[in-house]
Design brief:
By secondary structure, the chain is α+β, with helices and mostly antiparallel strands. The chain has three domains: 3-174, no CATH class; 194-326, ATP-grasp fold, B domain (D-amino Acid Aminotransferase, Chain A, domain 1), CATH 3.30.470; 334-414, no CATH class. It is built from ten helices and 17 strands. Strand 3 (53-57) and strand 4 (61-67) form a beta hairpin.
């Protein structure tokens, strides 16, 4: 989303502390803000629907703002997950994958409910129908639901009769992050943040290190206490997860040392962020194992509110995390690898554009890319749909989607 379109919602608030409207993959806490989120870089325009509600579009999901956050209190709204997908930071790709949005919403809701049962604080409030209001309270509250989930009430996932695409959440603030080329002014960000803001970091956790992992290019095994002189050719399974920090809102995000991450986390302590990431990783990894899936890696985003860090955005989905089933990817990684095999010239052009932008101290790498992605074949879209749907059914232990068994869906993808 361009800054000019985001500003169409930015002037609702004049305090400078809760402006603008717009996720992601690629992922994002629901916020009112003055600048686009990381995955909004190629998204559509935000527009005001009425005085208290605004809708914005990212590369893979929309959201609705129903009440504004302030410097010290949360607002309310909802994510609306679409069937769009994005790979290699491109933004919206040419195709849609049927039921992908409902898959991510269902799996994310399931994980949020697991986390809250473990006492992990989150911004999740329940799933909500497309026509409903997301500001009625948390799922399970005495005044937050009735027997008809299609009436728009906020309900637990178990009470949704159909695959949901709406998720009710608490909103935090994301102030402007000014930049000069590739230099970002985090002091200005926190000057507007108050005690209620989205931490401008992604916290990444890895349970394994595959051959293509960026970790191999940036670090040595000894940096992580591993007893290898160099990275071996095969996948390295880790006894303890590796946790790293990455910038969130920079056009080309950077991995950071803990001390560097601490400097741009504001009032949130990186120790708390790491602890929260490890707990999320534990919960998702254990649930995946019960579903015969291997949880390889993932990430979280967090909000800070009056001294407490909470999990934001969406967690443990096939877009945010990587899962495998008997060696086959059951996540968006399948689509990344498919594009590498079938559209290598476009993938190379994307990487070349990013490198050129970095060398020229420019943030807008996409304008330097001289190729566009091609649409997928129908059989690939159908296989991707079945993989998302069957994988979600297995993970949430419920036949929410009309989909083949997971082993059949995986076999179809493996044969492409």
């Amino acid at each position: 989303m361009a800054d000019s379109t985001a500003s169409s919602c930015a002037n609702v608030h004049t305090s400078g502390r809760a402006r603008g409207g717009s996720p992601h993959g690629n992922g994002n806490a629901l916020v009112r803000r003055r600048r686009p989120l990381a995955h909004d870089r190629q998204a559509g325009a935000a527009q005001s629907r009425h005085r208290t509600e605004a809708v914005a579009v990212t590369s893979v999901k929309e959201f609705r703002v129903e009440s504004e956050p302030t410097a010290d209190s949360l607002g309310s709204g909802a994510f609306e997950f679409t069937d769009d997908y994005s790979v290699f930071d491109w933004g919206k790709m040419p195709d849609e994958i049927t039921d992908k949005g409902a898959s991510l919403c269902s799996m994310g809701a399931y994980n949020f409910e697991l986390l809250e049962a473990e006492g992990v604080p989150t911004h999740y409030r329940g799933v909500v129908s497309e026509a409903g209001s997301a500001s009625e309270g948390r799922a399970g509250g005495s005044d937050s639901r009735d027997e008809d989930t299609e009436s728009g009430d906020v309900v637990p996932l178990a009470e949704a009769d159909e695959p949901p695409t709406g998720m009710a959440i608490d909103l935090t603030q994301v102030p402007d992050l000014p930049r000069d080329g590739r230099d970002y002014d985090y002091d200005a960000y926190f000057a507007d943040a108050g005690d209620n803001y989205l931490v401008p970091l992604e916290v990444v956790f890895r349970n394994s290190v595959p051959p293509g992992s960026s970790l191999r290019k940036r670090t040595d095994p000894a940096d992580h206490g591993l007893d290898f002189p160099e990275w071996p050719e095969g996948v390295v399974q880790l006894e303890e997860p590796i946790v790293e920090f990455s910038t969130k809102y920079e056009e080309s995000d950077r991995y950071l040392s803990p001390s560097a991450a601490d400097r741009i986390a504001g009032k949130a302590a990186v120790e708390d962020l790491e602890s929260l990431a490890r707990e999320v990783n534990r919960v998702v990894t254990e649930r995946a194992a019960e579903a015969d899936l291997v949880h390889e890696d993932g990430k979280i985003e967090c909000l800070y509110l009056n001294g407490e860090v909470r999990v934001a955005d969406v967690v443990g989905t096939f877009d945010e995390n990587r899962f495998s089933y008997h060696g086959q990817q059951v996540s968006k990684e399948f689509l990344r690898q498919y594009h590498k095999r079938t559209q290598p010239d476009w993938v190379d052009a994307v990487e070349d554009a990013k490198a050129e932008a970095k060398a020229r101290h420019r943030a807008d790498w996409k304008t330097l890319c001289d190729r566009e992605p091609e649409p997928l074949a129908d059989e690939v879209i159908e296989a991707a749909r079945d993989l998302y749907a069957a994988g979600t059914n297995a993970y949430i232990d419920r036949d929410l989607f009309d989909a083949p068994p997971l082993d059949e869906a995986v076999a179809a993808v493996r044969n492409l």
